[in-house]
Amino acid sequence: MCVDTSLPCKCLTSDNPCEPCRMTVKDTETEEAHLSNNINAGQTESASEPDLNNSSTEVVRERGRNWGWMLSGIICVNILILGCALVSGSAYNNVKISTPDLQVFLIIILLLTSIWMVYYVIYTARMENAVIYKDDHAGPVWLRGGLVLFGLLSIIMDIFKIASYVGYLHCDSAVKVAFPVVQLVFILIQTYFLWVHAKDCVQLQRNISRCGLMLTLSTNLVLWMTNVTEESLHQTDLPDYPGNTTKLSGRHLYITKAGYGDDKCKCSHTSCSMFKEAYYYLYPFNIEYSLFASAMAYVMWKNVGRVAAEHSHHNIKFSLRDIFLGPVLGVLLVFTGLATFIVYEMEMKKDDHDASKKDQAVMMHFVMNIVIVTLMSVSSVIGCAIYRVDHREHVSEKNPTRSLDVGLLVGASLGQFIISYFSIVAMVATGAKGYLNGLNLAWSILMVIQLGLQNFFIIEGLHREPFHEVEPVAVVPNPYVLEPSQDLSILEVQVTDGKPNSELTAHGHTAEHRHKLAWKRRVLKEVCAFLLMGNIILWIMPAFGARPQFDHDTETEFYKFNMWAAVVNIGLPFGIFYRMHSVASLFEVFLCS
Predict the structure, then answer these.
(1) Which of residues 310, 339, 365 is at a domain's end?
(2) Residues 296 and 334 grouped into a single domain
(3) Which run of H or of E encompasses 134?
(4) Cα dihedral 416, 87, 227, 271 sign
(5) Are residues 404 and 540 in the same domain?
(6) What's the DSSP call for residue 138?
(7) Domain for residue 28, yes or no?
(8) 237-281 residue pLDDT tens
(9) Is-above-0.85 flag for pTM?
(10) Dihedral sign for Cα atoms in the order 485, 487, 492, 493
């Protein structure tokens, strides 16, 4: 037993330690255990602190993102509802909302949107990390090129409006001159903004960017509503002055009352009527410009804060190589449709009221449209059949641009569906008596079929991976691998000849398979080219004034004028936009084919 604790105990060298030494060893082990536990606990706490910080940061970011989306959505909804109320009120003479009142509201939102776009351009140019990622699918060159083209034509329309409204300054509001001036500046700023920044995935000032983009979207939609309403009233309103001999179509109305509404105010120069007719025919381009800008602003809004995948977009080039039939037939269809449309419009705008000639013009228009939609339906069926034997993978990557394309395609087609089904009900209910009613019924039924087939073809094409040409790689069999029936001397002869007996291609792509692949690609390109040209002519005719819905009065008598005018004025703008959007989507499918 250890007696003197100041000296080292000798029992530690033996295998039988004394009681105090055993207690000392036990206390030491206990302290070390506590110390190690404390160290581990401290390490665990320190390791968990970053996780807690990261999770709390993510929660704050998610709350900020939701707050930005909600606030931007509130801004958009309020501007749209207020704009819709003002546009609807100014459309009727018995409501005390004048055109200058509406234009003051438009000037305010145009100026606010222009100021924000200038701020965005300056801010992103000065900040290095404001835009780190780009969405390669958003804002392709051909879409931005279409925006520039429509923007240029819209600027020309504003110049004609300014030249026309200046002649009425002595007796009308100066706001009518100020509005096209502000709109012209807005179009210049917005076109540059969307051309340069359409692919941006903004990472800084996200909430401000979301609100600004929703302001841009709602401003363009209010402009679209204003232009559509004014253009529709030119076609369907009845003049309220005595001596009216105009048909229900109101085709001559816009010449005398285009945006002025007061016959006592006379133009101070002789070119007013010429400018009126000129800018009236530029309305369709301004309408499409507003819709193009709205769609691009929406995609930018969806991309705010988005981390886009790099190198996810395939480099696809436009080429008309190896296709001939589709473009040629499509161009022929466009020129034929233009010829019949011009004859039809000239006959409808004549002052004489020869009913038989007008009926013949309407019949020619119906027949031409029946031929167009029939050929387009057959082409869509061929394209859908090719997709059945096409084994390309479906696109799995989520992209806001593609989702928007599909949503707009289906949503816009509802306008033409509505008009067609209303016509079908009217024709069937009245018995479809007469050749014009029979043609109208056939056109409406074929239009429904064509819309369904084309939507399926375009949506399926947008969700397919692009074709990739894989160069065949020759795989030469090893001549030194002996088979049981071969002799070494035979192998030597084969090697000295330098020509393998058989040549395989990588991934099993034989020449026959490559031929089939090229054949399917050609057919899809032919179908896309023909459908694209068909949609162009179906956009041109209603966009530039064709209104067979009022020139043929069966639906007007069946539904009464006010109800039928409401159906057409709501559905037709969406149908016109559907055709232009189909052109853009078919071009995308053409590139992927």
Answers:
(1) 310
(2) no
(3) strand 131-134
(4) positive
(5) yes
(6) S
(7) no
(8) 544 444 443 344 444 443 343 444 455 678 877 778 788 878 878
(9) no
(10) negative
